[in-house]
Amino acid sequence: MTANRFATRLNSFASRPQAEWPELVGKPSMLQMAARAAKVAGLTDLDLNFPDHVDEKPVEMARKLGDIGLSINGFAMRYYSNPAFKLGAFTNPDPAVRREAIDLTKAGIDAAREAGANLMTLWLGQDGFDYAFQADYATLWQHEIDGIREVAAHDPDCLISLEYKPNEPRSYSLMPDAATTLLAIREIGLPNLGVTLDFAHVLYAEEQPAFAAALVARHSKLLGVHLNDGYAKRDDGLMVGAVHTLQTIELLRQIRRDGYAGTIYFDTFPDMTGLDPVHECEVNIATVKRMLRVVDRLEGDNRLSTAIDRQDAVASQAIIQEAMLGPEN
């Protein structure tokens, strides 16, 4: 894991706009939000949404971000440009709409490559269903597989990462959990495919994050880690470690052991309640660094591996609590 590379959700930096841009009319631009993000101590990268954040030549955009000290970790597709996408992007019943979504994704991949990035994240939230008897499931699945296969084959040197989520905006998502996503990747069979784990999505898929990461490492590859937190009922986007501290530490330990070399990305929502996005992001970075120091202590403690080998939950909890909180006396 590249512990010193941290990325963040750019739209977070539209939070409390009056504090940053008193004279602003309307929404801040991509570069205005990026300039605010550049104030975050320790932040190295941004992920950009396509097409939302790309309003000029990608190479120029990358240059301007570089001038303020930020790199582009990757792009993430958003399918909002055509209202028809609400009924599905790659799975839309209209072949013309499916073609539009696929071509838009290919354009996003090209833009990412022009900007110097080689990671495209696909969150296919529009692809799913809401009612019984709404769709033929075999047809939906085939459309999804065909669409992902075509965009992944478009540029074999660009990594395509599938980010799953149980629902929202659709009642049932076609990519709701780790196992289903891994089945799709196996069926498609292209080497540039992998998985992005979003901590809050994993929680409300009723998965244990470290177990999901272990499955991904065994059957595919982990291409992205989105840290946040929540109450396992929806995509809360809370700060890292706010609710599930132990599970976050276990995930960090697991992905380190599995050789994850990517960036840690913060997919949190300070803008939902008007938090200071700069301070919020700095606290997230500091929290992860502290957690990684706990992981270091755990990895240097032979008692933990022994307890895990025995599946001794009491012993392992005692060791972890000591690593986090210090000795009892």
Automatic annotation (TrEMBL):
Domain Xylose isomerase-like TIM barrel intervals: 49-270
Pfam families, per database record: AP_endonuc_2 (PF01261)
Localisation per UniProt entry: Cytoplasm
Transmembrane segments annotated in the record for this chain: none
A biological-process GO annotation: D-xylose metabolic process
Keywords from the named record: Carbohydrate metabolism, Cytoplasm, Isomerase, Manganese, Metal-binding, Xylose metabolism
InterPro entries documented for this protein: L-rhamnose_isomerase, Xyl_isomerase-like_sf, Xyl_isomerase-like_TIM-brl, Xylose_isomerase
Main location: cytoplasm
One Gene Ontology MF term: metal ion binding
Gene Ontology CC: cytoplasm
EC number: 5.3.1.5
PANTHER family from the UniProt entry: L-RHAMNOSE ISOMERASE
Name by which UniProt lists this protein: Xylose isomerase
Organism whose genome encodes this protein: Mesorhizobium muleiense
